[in-house]
Amino acid sequence: MDALNNLMYGFSIALEPINIAYVFAGVFAGTIIGMLPGLGPISALALMIPITFSMEPSSGLILMAGVYYGAIFGGSTSSILLNAPGVAGTVATSFDGYPMAKKGQAGKALAIAAYASFIGGTVSVVFLMLVAPLLSKVAVSFGPAEYFALMVLGLTAVVSLSDKSLVKGLIAAVIGVMISIVGIDMQTGTERFTFGSINLLDGIDFLVVALGIFALAEVFYMLLRGGDSKEGPRNAIGSLKLTRSEVGEIAGPVSRGSVLGFFTGVLPGAGATIGSFLGYSMEKKIAKDGDTFGQGNIKGVAAPEAANNAACTGSFVPLLTLGVPGSGTTAVLLGALLVMGVNPGPMMLEQRPDVFWGVVASMYIGNIFLLVLNLPLIPFIAKILDMPKALLLSLILIFCMIGVYGMSFSVFDLLLLLGFGVLGLGMRLFGFPAAPLILALILGNIMEESMRRALQISGGDWMTFIDKPISLSLLVIAALSLTLPLIKKRRRKA
Amino acid sequence: MTRLNTNQWLALVLALVAAAYIAMAWQIATFPLPRPVDSDLFPKVLGFALLILSAFLFFEPPAPLAGADTIDPDAPRGPLLSTPWARVIVTVVAVAAYALLLVPLGFVLASMLLCVGLTVYYGYRRHSVTLAVTLGVVLGLYLMMTRVMDVYLPTGVLPF
Amino acid sequence: MKTSLKRLTLLALPAALLVGATASAQAQEWAPTKSIEFVAPANPGGGWDTLVRTVSRVLQEEGLAERNFAAINVPGGGGAVAWAQIARDNGNPHKLFATSPPIILVPLSGASRYDHTDFTPIARLITDYSIILVSADSEYETLNDLFDALKENPNLSVGGGSAPGSMDHISMAGAAAAAGLEAASVNYVPFSGGGDAMTNLMGGHIEAVITGAGESVGQLGEGSQLRALGVSAPERLGGGLEDVPTYQEQGIDYTFDIWRGVMGTPDMPAEAVAYYEDLFAEMLETDGWQRARDQLGWIDAYQDSEAFGDFLDAQQEQFSSVLGDLGLLRQ
What is the ipTM of this complex? Predict the structure, then answer.
């Protein structure tokens, strides 16, 4: 009953009027930042540090955590409506969310995203509360070899994400890895494929590629299809209500997505983006109608949305229990906590229980706020789609440009964004799937780095990947997930 | 000589890209300290993987193009500038121009020009609506980023 | 750019008028005529950015500067993108940037055409030190235990938070050399940050970690999973680190500063340099600065323009000799 007492204590902090106001302000600001493509929670939080400087630490963290999970919550909106991922964690949501919007089910897609996010967020707070201290052991048990195996497992999803032509899917994936390794090689400091440009030394930002290949390419594609005024108002929103059978359909994906997402989030370095991809491709594999994923399947919205919000909460485990940031966003949060005079780490639960339990309790409240804030807004936000197409297309362009510029302050990145837009259009016209490229882009670099790190530690001994039990079992699962479908197919044919 | 199909054309292009990539991979400097796997191994593997995959693509019978059937065949034939491909090209040029003019013109002016210009070009005729919406969105974003979030955006020729 | 700054000044005017009263009393020869662009050559959130934003805020709150300090982020290439931009702005007295050892290390490793001699040193402000950590249940009790083990088995890995040839690596290699090892023999494994390296240390994947002392404070103390073997400071640090011996106490004659300071455009006029020197010296005395400094775990290490310049030259010499030993010098 300890947890219950602690939680009560947490609520006594989170329910102070001022903290309720901070939760609300945080999730509200987060939702808006999340909706704007490009501008992500990292820069928003970094810029908020001066504001939180003089705050009570629990209030400061409550506010900033609210911005973080609020942004992940809000990011799904632009993924669904505009095919422009608002934050990196919501790219996978656009795979089925955007097709749903095109079919006139924008309202339903947004509602599913909201419910799934809420459940993913809430379930993961329960986990955070109950098992955070235990999980810190899991988090540190992942060394370079284990990460390499995890990335390999993640990359096997390329096969299920490339439905029409496996060869084209693999080509897209190889190109994705190629993009991910541009820049200074972290392991040696050597420049690779920078063409002598200092603008490429830091590599190519994930969101530049994602916005180009999804949002810009979509704009170009709509222009190609010609129909500006011919296509009348789509009356696009549709109903928000889910039928009983639909609820039953997404229950599984949401709960599996929540659990999977949370554990992915706990691992430092994995985070919301990888969590949502894993959730998506797992559901695609499990589902009987897996081949309709990508054409507006509601499960394809529910799974990644539950997973990315759960992963977001999960990423607080290493931050609060170990004091190590698992992602760029939590690194900024760690910095903010230090500024406020709190040292997150193994001692924090004892020294500053107010911060830990206050934040945990505030997350329950924040998720409820997000749901009641977002659901009634859906019909209004979805009205964007009723805008004249000519205007809408120009606005999408502007949004993407602003997002990228506000993130990197670089004209070069704007041109890069345009380049990826053109590449995305080409891929689309010639039937290359975009999802494998994006997945490989996220995983490729981490895979290479952790592989080389592991070998550096083992002195060049490749057995290190097989000697470690976690790494070995992940590699076995990866091998099985590649071969089992083939065997199944054989059998069916025989 | 038989005509090459789409996949074969693509395969040839990709093979060229792969060859260039491999050539560049060989020029990556070796690290002075001994490393079990140096910076060049991964790129080399990737280059050859792409080469092999393009060979597979060469022999894959092309599926009907995903986009081809949806490109409107009887889209406005009229003036050259409003054919579908012209729209894409004009948009690409306009966005590139925006990127280059962003700093000298300033954020607000450049964004307004791009947004209004393209909307009118795409054929939306209610200019007052365009202006109002664009102004609202651009100014709103600008004020939010510069005033609330303290992000510096180029001001250019306008006084703010 | 010029016009844009003039416009910014208009915004900054009210603030400037407020502080004008206090500052004008000191009768400076030169004073800024528009707001000052203060560049952090990195994304929001990192060390340079924190310095830039904290300094701007303190200057404004304490009413020291006659003009507004506008924090601007120019990320890319570990600083190289910003340096290339600033190097073009010859003699502009209204542009400053935050700096630290990478301004010397990045050019030495060949990744930037500009090095510290291309810019005008203004002042060194603060410093941090390296710290060497091992797991709490490790058999190494002192630095010498660790170095003896490394001598015996060069395969033991030491993690750090930055690429080979940058701060953590140089600091570790230098210490190893001072302890009688080959600098290049240390099996340095780069992680994507000090936090990442410390997690791997807790998990037992690596033998030891070198990182910034400030970054590690939260990890140490009672019940911690990590143990600190030494700091690279000339004398013991305060706060949570007072129990950690220096390298020198353990017979390893080596110190390493992770300093941060401010530099200006190439050939900045001497009067402007003098103005900023005084401004920062004054800022370090204020309560607002001292509060912020303590919260962030910084240690004051002021040097004026000339001393800072000499210090930078000495640092360059020291770093290139370590890089040379490592075989990483590219020039």
Answer: 0.89
Chains touching C (at least 3 CB pairs under 8 A) are: A, B
Domain of residue B47, residue span: 6-58
DSSP state of A143: -
Cβ–Cβ gap B152/C70 under 8 Å: yes
Q: Chain B contact for A232, CB < 8 A?
A: no
Domains of chain A by residue range: 2-142+206-409
For residue C38, the chain B residue with the least C-alpha distance is: B152
With an 8 Å Cβ cutoff, are B35 and A456 in contact? yes
| Closest CA relative to residue A263, chosen from A315, A322, A330 | A315
User: Alpha helix (H) ranges present in A103-237?
Assistant: 106-141, 144-155, 157-161, 166-180, 206-210, 217-224
A196 contact C CB<8A: no
Work out the average pLDDT over C210-228.
Answer: 82
Q: How far apart are CA C280 and CA C259, in angstroms?
A: 15
**Helix extents (H) in A315-385:** 316-317, 328-339, 348-351, 353-382
Residue B64: inside a domain:
no
- Alpha carbons A271 and C72: distance in angstroms, whole number: 29
Whole-number Å distance between alpha carbons of C248 and C231: 9
| β-bridge partners, C300 | C126
Residue C26's pLDDT band (boundaries 50, 70, 90)?
Answer: very low
Ordered by where they begin, the domains of chain C are: 2-127+257-326 (3.40.190.150), 128-250 (3.40.190.10)
Phi and psi at residue A452, to the nearest 5°: -70, -35
Could you read off the pLDDT of B116-140 as tens digits, one per residue? 999 888 888 888 888 988 898 888 8
Whether residues B135 and B96 share a domain: the answer is yes
Give the model's pLDDT for residue A132. Answer: 78
Q: Are A192 and B28 an interchain contact pair (Cβ–Cβ within 8 Å)?
A: yes
Chain B neighbors of A37, CB-CB under 8 A: none
Residue A187 C-alpha, separation from nearest chain B C-alpha, in angstroms = 8
- Residue A466's Cα: distance from chain center in Å? 30
